Amino acid sequence: MLRVLFFGSLAEQVGMAELALDWQPGWQQVQDVLASLHRSHPAIAQVLAKRRGLLIAVNQRIGAATAAIADQDELAFLPPVTGG
Amino acid sequence: MLRVLFFGSLAEQVGMAELALDWQPGWQQVQDVLASLHRSHPAIAQVLAKRRGLLIAVNQRIGAATAAIADQDELAFLPPVTGG
Amino acid sequence: MNATTPACPIQVAAQFDDFDVGALTRRLYAQAGAVGAVATFVGLVRTDDDVLALTLQHYPGLTEHSLQQLAAEAAARWPLLGIEIVHRVGRLNPGEQIVYVGVASGHRREALTACSYLADQLKTRAILWKQEHRPTGDTWLEPSDADNASVASWHQQA
Amino acid sequence: MNATTPACPIQVAAQFDDFDVGALTRRLYAQAGAVGAVATFVGLVRTDDDVLALTLQHYPGLTEHSLQQLAAEAAARWPLLGIEIVHRVGRLNPGEQIVYVGVASGHRREALTACSYLADQLKTRAILWKQEHRPTGDTWLEPSDADNASVASWHQQA
Lengths: 84, 84, 158, 158
Known about the structure:
Distance between the termini of chain C: 24 Å
Strand content of chain A: 25-35%
Oligomer: heterotetramer
Radius of gyration of chain A: 12 Å
Radius of gyration of chain C: 16 Å
Strand order of the largest sheet of chain A: 2-1-5-3-4
Number of helices of chain A: 3
Number of strands of chain A: 5
Helix content of chain A: 25-40%
Structural class of chain C: alpha+beta
Largest sheet of chain A: 5 strands, mixed
Largest interface: C-D, 37 and 36 residues
């Protein structure tokens, strides 16, 4: 199982804050998951493809689309942040 | 009577923090008092003449040697300041 | 850490609870005799354009990690003796404290500069999302051009 | 003061008693909803070169006037919503608080800049005299070349 999280405005755009995906044996990198999303959840994939400046985090560490991913991991998509 | 105050290192150099001078009818400006000091308190006058960067205050307001002075005023000599 | 490099303890938190500026600031005095300056910054909720409230969302774990990383950058760049960052999350009303940044150093220039650095970096690099609630609806905020320019200016000074 | 120019209350003190950073800082939140940023600076006594203690001498009346004047300069230069300066006098031991500067503003840049300005100006323009007590004797201090350069730099930025 892969837990996928969406934050801030992105959660509103995809219509959910969290998504649980069954683990696919072929997945090795974040981009493999994104490719699967285009088939399984095309609306979400489209939002992710359109949003500029999204950050990716795997297990609460920022990474690239080429970051390694494994079963039971937590994958998060982060729109532009602002604190302070 | 004119009250004369010395602060910081200047008080140590002149050997006192405060001096009371009898009011002289001819005094109009701070520099008149300084001229009198050369006769009445030459050691103090010499210290004041030698110290660089002394500020003068009359009645707790910074002024120049040409500042007006009157009986019952408070005249202060201030060496370089540092706070913070 | 060795005899010539005093430690710079770093404490960060992302929390729903309010914080006590006095207690946080006094904690930065711990290295008594070495600390000569403590600079602090507190952000508060304004009522600009009829803002009723803000909601700050965080990502537990990653948010704290981002605060820790900003503090570590400051500690590497200036000779500091302590850093505290507390960022509140959840719904905050006008007048409420949002964020505390406190920096201790031997001398004022380093404490003040590092505090400004952290206040600027938080705007664009703290992992947080901010939503404004107004009578006309809710809006998610993104860093302004000015915020991005402030962060860029620290690179030019490097 | 009118509808478009919010007031910038100024409070200054020169006092023997210690001060409460939390209470002073919270006082700057008074214009709730307008204040978006509070920057503060606290100076503390260091033990540099075996300093046993400092003694700060003031000139009651003129010292407060000098603090008030520096605060008024800052309020004229930046859009501020409150300034507090508390300077301690008398004998102070290592680790003790010497001075508090707090500045409230709508936005962080103005609060942080004005706070730095005041911390710099105090070094050379607050009417105070500072004596260091060491095992080898007592020394009256004067502003360093660096302190004078810091103050001069604010004129260049004007």
